[in-house]
Amino acid sequence: MPGSKELKPLGQNLTPEATTLAGELRMLVNALGISMTLCAAQLHMDKGTLSRYLSGERIPDFRVIEDLLMLSTRRCETAPPTQYVVTHLRTLHQAALRSGGTPQQQIVLLREQLAAADNVAQQARRKEQALTAALHAAQQHIAKFDVDLWRPGDDGGRQPTGHAYQVERYHYRVQDDRQALLDEIERLKRELDQAHRQRLAAEARAEDLERQLDRAEHEAAGDPEPERSPDALSELVARRRDGTLDDMDPDQMLSILSRISVAWVAEILDELAPSRAVLVLARMDVDQADAALVHMNPKQAVLVLDRMDTTKVARTLDRMDPHQVVVLLDEELPGRAARLLNEMNLGHVAHVLQFAPETVAGMFLDRMDPARVAAMLNLMAPAQAGAMLHCMSPVRARTIMQQMDPVLAAKIAYPSYYNSGSSMRQRGSFGA
Fold first, then answer.
1. Looking at domain 16-100, does it have CATH number 1.10.260?
2. Are 377 and 388 in contact (CB under 8 A)?
3. Residue among 355, 362, 357 at smallest CA distance from 396
4. Sign of the dihedral through C-alpha 190, 191, 196, 201
5. Was domain 101-153+167-224 assigned CATH 3.40.50.300?
6. Which parts of the sequence belong to the Magnesium transporter MgtE intracellular domain (predicted)?
7. What dihedral angle (degrees, nearest 10) is formed by the CA atoms of 390, 395, 399, 400?
8. pLDDT surpassing 50 at residue 172
9. What is d(CA 410, CA 376) in angstroms, rounded to the nearest whole number?
């Protein structure tokens, strides 16, 4: 066990939080029953650094505390620390960092917060990806469901033969199953929308912390932050409070927007006149401008996009998340939305429409160029293409199918559909 002579006394003028954390660390080290020199070697640090941690003069990264817990588990041959112990020590660690106020402690705190925020963002991304996969699977299921249902019974389809009441009962059951699947799709869309917003918020939080950490490290090293202008930032805050942001010099505003979080940039752009926001976005870095549009209020974003060239807007939408494109296009007039979709990358349009509600997708598809819609459907699997056709009006769907790849069209609906007497025509799915 480290002797009392090996442990330096607690530092003078420590905050209560730093004293508590140092006391916990000292108990962990004492319980190891080894010398300070060996303990430091096991933790891959010098003895002086460990001594300063144990006296409270410096606050270690939480990684050091985790290494100490693992060392204690190995040396004492005990069970790993419980989640309660880890959470307790993390709480003490965070409190000690906040109470210190020194630049170095603030940097450590920002690093810990950035790592935690990045973990949250990664979890949000994984959840969004899982929900996206589940939604696509459900959409393909219902598309295949409808394609099978449209097939004539004598061609091996799902329609039963027999007494009329049996047929009627079958169709009632089929419609119930289909409605249950549609309800599941709507639930997945709601959850995906929520997960998407959570991911954006988590990424904005991580980006904001990263900027704060860069600034703190510059200040600790004695390097001035590039283009740092506290007076300009104060003026932006004052103008925002007074409602006079539109009167601020654009170059001065840009120098500030380049150093603040995307979420704050979006808030500033939301408060500008749309024409002024267009001017500012045009001068911004492309990636920052795209990120700002994603975080802006959809109504304001649409007002801004309406003042930009259609081709330029289409290129911007091509770089954005399909889910966010749906939100923006849903705010647009249908004609303008269709023109934008006609200009966008076909593969991206296909992803966008798969995220859109059925009525919205149908509205867009009915107004897009038929040849372009047919070319887009040719890129899809039969089940996905069938789902898109199902969103359109029957006459429009028939026109599109005539322009599609014949092999793909044949997989969606039998050639007998184009003759007379097809059950598909009788159902009114794609009939004239």
1. yes
2. yes
3. 362
4. positive
5. no
6. 260-360
7. -20
8. yes
9. 17
